[in-house]
Amino acid sequence: xxxxxxxxxxxxxxxxxxxxxxxxxxxxxxxxxxxxxxxxxxxxxxxxxxxxxxxxxxxxxxxxxxxxxxxxxxxxxxxxxxxxxxxxxxxxxxxxxxxxxxxxxxxxxxxxxxxxxxxxxxxxxxxxxxxxxxxxxxxxxxxxxxxxxxxxxxxxxxxxxxxxxxxxxxxxxxxxxxxxxxxxxxxxxxxxxxxxxxxxxxxxxxxxxxxxxxxxxxxxxxxxxxxxxxxxxxxxxxxxxxxxxxxxxxxxxxxxxxxxxxxxxxxxxxxxxxxxxxxxxxxxxxxxxxxxxxxxxxxxxxxxxxxxxxxxxxxxxxxxxxxxxxxxxx
Length: 330
Prior knowledge:
Distance between the termini: 121 Å
Number of helices: 14
CATH class of the domain at 38-126: Mainly Alpha
Largest sheet: none
CATH architecture of the domain at 38-126: Alpha Horseshoe
Number of strands: 0
Structural class: mainly alpha
């Protein structure tokens, strides 16, 4: 009988532990984002209860652990305070301290989310720009561009959502233009050119006067050129790239990237010229349709009057017009 009771107690304890773990798993961790993009509200669990009976006492206790350099335990107690007393004045202080300790411990993604929780839940109860600065520093840690190598990133996939969150948090913050530029750079690095183009266009609209505006405009033109190169028969895409290069040169004519833009412009204008010239040649030499050829040649001259083919095209138009007259007379 004694053994049966002992076995029963063991089973009960196992069930209780299993239930506690299941309950903890059911409570969505606050670090994870919901479908709305907002961080879930913290809740108390069996393993995340405060050591004291009031928020004030809990904060003092957590601070004492921090002062003793018992940082891991301090983090637990700060977190427990926020979970138990989310609406008390001490909660914002505890959340900020928790985020800072995570940051100092090198747990950067958790620290970023802890600052995000602070921003979302306790606006106006802490130095807002300080939290943004910490988030920006963390995002840059994952970006980690090499100073002498353009677009060399450590963990771009991890940095991207962090920069996006920063811009969403404070679109008018003094470093949001840089964050938005980094979003474009990362997409371009990952060959997500449509997303890169969209990010750089946001720069034109929202951050046109920032120090990153010119570089973003050139990067936009480069991305458009890359897409155009992948679609060699897409006349509209090539025309868009040519327009972007032309606008960049005209707007930032003294910028260091202008010579590179000019080289690209020559190349893509020639490609675009071929796209208008080749149909005219087809109508002229293969299809033997002089009227259509004249129309196509004239369209080419209208768009590319300074082309090195212009003189020969004008002469050919005169010849074809004579042929058209002769055909009409016959």
